[in-house]
Amino acid sequence: MIVEMRIYHCAPGRLPALQERFTQTTLAFFEKYGIEQVGFWTTLVGPSNHALTYLLKWDSMADREAKWGAFQADPEWLAKRAASEAEKIIVERIENYFLAPTAFSALK
User: Per the confidence metrics, is the pTM higher than 0.90?
Assistant: First the structure.
Protein backbone atom coordinates (compact mmCIF):
# COMPACT_ATOMS: atom_id res chain seq x y z
CA MET A 1 0.00 0.00 0.00
CA ILE A 2 1.10 3.54 -0.75
CA VAL A 3 -0.50 6.86 0.13
CA GLU A 4 -0.51 9.82 -2.21
CA MET A 5 -0.61 13.26 -0.60
CA ARG A 6 -1.86 16.03 -2.86
CA ILE A 7 -1.84 19.69 -1.86
CA TYR A 8 -3.82 22.07 -4.06
CA HIS A 9 -2.80 25.70 -3.68
CA CYS A 10 -5.77 27.79 -4.76
CA ALA A 11 -5.92 31.26 -6.20
CA PRO A 12 -6.99 33.72 -3.48
CA GLY A 13 -10.69 33.34 -2.71
CA ARG A 14 -11.05 30.17 -4.83
CA LEU A 15 -10.85 27.50 -2.10
CA PRO A 16 -14.68 27.41 -1.80
CA ALA A 17 -14.92 26.75 -5.55
CA LEU A 18 -12.46 23.85 -5.24
CA GLN A 19 -14.38 22.38 -2.31
CA GLU A 20 -17.62 22.67 -4.29
CA ARG A 21 -16.01 20.95 -7.30
CA PHE A 22 -14.92 18.04 -5.10
CA THR A 23 -18.32 17.62 -3.43
CA GLN A 24 -20.41 18.15 -6.57
CA THR A 25 -18.21 16.49 -9.21
CA THR A 26 -14.79 15.04 -8.42
CA LEU A 27 -15.75 12.57 -5.70
CA ALA A 28 -18.24 10.88 -8.05
CA PHE A 29 -15.44 10.37 -10.57
CA PHE A 30 -13.18 9.01 -7.82
CA GLU A 31 -15.90 6.47 -7.02
CA LYS A 32 -16.37 5.64 -10.72
CA TYR A 33 -12.66 4.81 -11.07
CA GLY A 34 -12.18 3.12 -7.69
CA ILE A 35 -10.01 5.91 -6.28
CA GLU A 36 -10.04 5.56 -2.49
CA GLN A 37 -9.65 8.67 -0.37
CA VAL A 38 -8.19 8.65 3.14
CA GLY A 39 -9.34 12.20 3.91
CA PHE A 40 -9.38 15.89 3.04
CA TRP A 41 -8.12 18.84 5.09
CA THR A 42 -7.90 22.61 4.95
CA THR A 43 -5.09 24.52 6.65
CA LEU A 44 -5.89 26.15 9.98
CA VAL A 45 -2.33 27.29 10.73
CA GLY A 46 0.43 27.38 8.15
CA PRO A 47 1.90 29.41 5.34
CA SER A 48 -1.44 29.73 3.47
CA ASN A 49 -5.10 29.12 4.21
CA HIS A 50 -5.81 28.83 0.46
CA ALA A 51 -4.82 25.14 0.33
CA LEU A 52 -6.66 21.83 0.26
CA THR A 53 -4.66 18.76 1.27
CA TYR A 54 -5.91 15.24 0.67
CA LEU A 55 -4.67 11.67 0.83
CA LEU A 56 -5.43 8.83 -1.56
CA LYS A 57 -4.73 5.16 -0.87
CA TRP A 58 -3.35 2.90 -3.61
CA ASP A 59 -2.43 -0.79 -3.74
CA SER A 60 0.67 0.03 -5.82
CA MET A 61 2.06 2.60 -8.24
CA ALA A 62 0.67 0.50 -11.10
CA ASP A 63 -2.79 0.66 -9.47
CA ARG A 64 -2.41 4.44 -9.18
CA GLU A 65 -1.29 4.90 -12.77
CA ALA A 66 -4.18 2.85 -14.17
CA LYS A 67 -6.93 4.48 -12.10
CA TRP A 68 -5.59 8.05 -12.09
CA GLY A 69 -4.82 7.89 -15.80
CA ALA A 70 -8.36 6.74 -16.63
CA PHE A 71 -9.84 9.47 -14.41
CA GLN A 72 -7.65 12.20 -15.93
CA ALA A 73 -8.57 11.12 -19.48
CA ASP A 74 -12.35 10.96 -18.87
CA PRO A 75 -13.96 13.43 -21.32
CA GLU A 76 -16.84 14.17 -18.97
CA TRP A 77 -14.42 15.00 -16.12
CA LEU A 78 -12.35 17.22 -18.43
CA ALA A 79 -15.46 19.13 -19.52
CA LYS A 80 -16.73 19.59 -15.96
CA ARG A 81 -13.32 20.71 -14.71
CA ALA A 82 -13.07 23.24 -17.54
CA ALA A 83 -16.59 24.52 -16.83
CA SER A 84 -15.71 24.99 -13.14
CA GLU A 85 -12.81 27.22 -14.17
CA ALA A 86 -14.61 29.13 -16.93
CA GLU A 87 -14.88 32.21 -14.70
CA LYS A 88 -11.29 32.04 -13.48
CA ILE A 89 -8.62 29.55 -12.44
CA ILE A 90 -9.12 27.64 -9.19
CA VAL A 91 -5.82 25.83 -8.56
CA GLU A 92 -2.56 27.70 -9.09
CA ARG A 93 -0.16 24.92 -8.07
CA ILE A 94 -0.24 21.26 -7.00
CA GLU A 95 2.23 19.47 -4.74
CA ASN A 96 2.26 15.70 -4.99
CA TYR A 97 3.98 13.12 -2.74
CA PHE A 98 3.94 9.33 -2.64
CA LEU A 99 4.36 7.95 0.86
CA ALA A 100 5.19 4.42 2.03
CA PRO A 101 4.17 3.38 5.55
CA THR A 102 6.85 2.51 8.07
CA ALA A 103 6.86 -0.77 9.99
CA PHE A 104 5.42 1.07 13.00
CA SER A 105 2.67 2.96 11.14
CA ALA A 106 -0.94 2.46 12.24
CA LEU A 107 -1.98 2.69 8.57
CA LYS A 108 -0.39 -0.07 6.46
Answer: yes
